[in-house]
Amino acid sequence: MEANNKVNGLEEEKIKGPTNPMVTPLLTDLYQFTMAYAYWKGGKHSERSVFDLFFRRNPFGGEYTIFAGLEECVRFIANFRIGEDEIAFLRQALPPTCEDGFFEYLRGIDCSDVEVYAVAEGSVVFPKMPLMRIEGPVAVVQLLETPFVNLINYASLVATNAARHRFVAGKSKLLLEFGLRRAQGPDGGISASKYCYMGGFDATSNVAAGKLFGIPLRGTHSHAFVSSFMSADEIVDKSLRSSNGSTTCEDFVGLVQSWLNKLQWTESLRGSFGETNQSELAAFTSYALAFPSNFLALVDTYDVVRSGIPNFCAVALALNDLGYKAGGIRLDSGDLAYLSCESRKFFCAVEKEFGVPGFGKICITASNDLNEETLDALNKQGHEVDSFGIGTYLVTCYAQPALGCVFKLVEINKQPRIKLSEDVSKVSIPCKKRCFRLFGKEGYPLVDIMTGVNEPPPKVSERILCRHPFNESKRAYVVPQQVEELLKCYWSGDSGAPREELPPIKKIRDRCIQQLDQMRPDHMRRLNPTPYKVSVSAKLYDFIHFLWLNEAPVGELQ
């Protein structure tokens, strides 16, 4: 199913359904339907409600999170309809006392009376601030809770994980997502590829994600390809045309062997290796014949320094003779810092000895269960890796399995509501709110502030009191040099109100990178980062505590 909506009052192309066809109205918890029935039975189902979607703690011990998953939420509600098969199943799943009229009600509902306000996807966000504000009939919005939380939770978690890996690796390194085979199922693999790219990775090995989202693809061969060869005799077609097509080398295998002999007799390389593994050389040669313009070899099947690197260089130099430039090597085991440095030395020696421009700068890619800690350790040890292929720890979010988004009612029929708890961190912030980011004179964000929807917004160069929502002693005056409103309309239903366009993934990725660059360095560091301040206006602070006292029962001592 696809749905129309309007952008700035103009009819736009239909919004496609969710990427994963399993994202349907039944992808929810049973209690959402039991509550919907109870709302309907009590005549409350059409009451206008406001819910906030937010999280309580930043993941991975850090002090920031990347918001992701918004587009999938909009796709979901744009095509939200409960079909006949689904209604038939719900009749069986719900108690037999549920009246027929409820199922007729379900048959007719959609999200035309729902509005969604959200932070732009790819933004840096913080605990307690609403990522999304959903307004609409309470029964309908309740049915959106589980799908929305599901679509935001993992997306934001893995995008944040990707951004953290990018921060440690540095801007100059190429980051490749290699996690499909270790991801939690097909949806985990597809989602990881999408949101890792959004979080700052450069490419993926996941072909399906490349097709779906236009993410650049990277990949060459595995150890199996190398070990499948026994000798160069297996190579049938040994000819290779030059890159400009002007000549043909009839015996590329022989050209490679002659270059290996030259390397073995080169004074500056003498002693670094002897006889190399000839089956590995055959595999590299065969792969170069198949992909002369994209030759990148996995060099650790047998021995990196004594075989893999010299064999690679022999093939790369033969390709160079024909006008091709080798892509590089991949290291998938061993001491990556040491092996990358030894490889770089070898490449530089070859460039100097044979006068091949740029050979010393050949790309070195490293993989093998990398994570934030190993990247940080490599940086401290010193390495020559240009590109990192990261899989398991990235896509599984091994350091923290869930973000912990929640979906709380904050207003119904224009009456603010609050959820109380003995754990203060779980007390919700009531009423329909506006959210702003205040920037200081150096251009960094200083504080995020929530205000009541009817309060005047913060103004540039005008002092405003920012208060911690629950701690009365934590407060500060801020004179913002820039004010950015965070929540924008992304779904307006049939109201006709203008809404924000859903940008392509490349623009979301650019936004993420720009937002991270904008953050103060002490908020970003891996160890002991400074917490970012999230506050409420003085008026909202007073109202929170008034409502808290009003709703909390008064105990009695006897």
TrEMBL record:
Cofactor(s) the record lists: Mn(2+); Mg(2+)
Superkingdom of the organism of origin: Eukaryota
EC number: 6.3.4.21
Molecular function in Gene Ontology: glycosyltransferase activity; metal ion binding; nicotinate phosphoribosyltransferase activity
Catalysed reactions, as listed in the record: 5-phospho-alpha-D-ribose 1-diphosphate + nicotinate + ATP + H2O = nicotinate beta-D-ribonucleotide + ADP + phosphate + diphosphate
The keyword Glycosyltransferase appears for this protein: yes
Enzyme class: ligase
Biological processes annotated in GO: NAD+ biosynthetic process via the salvage pathway
Residue stretches making up the Nicotinate/nicotinamide phosphoribosyltransferase domain: 177-426
Residue ranges of domain Nicotinate phosphoribosyltransferase C-terminal in the record: 432-543
Any one GO cellular component localisation term in the record: cytosol
Protein family membership: Belongs to the NAPRTase family.
Annotated function: Catalyzes the first step in the biosynthesis of NAD from nicotinic acid, the ATP-dependent synthesis of beta-nicotinate D-ribonucleotide from nicotinate and 5-phospho-D-ribose 1-phosphate. Helps prevent cellular oxidative stress via its role in NAD biosynthesis.
Name the record gives this protein: Nicotinate phosphoribosyltransferase
Lineage: Eukaryota, Viridiplantae, Streptophyta, Embryophyta, Tracheophyta
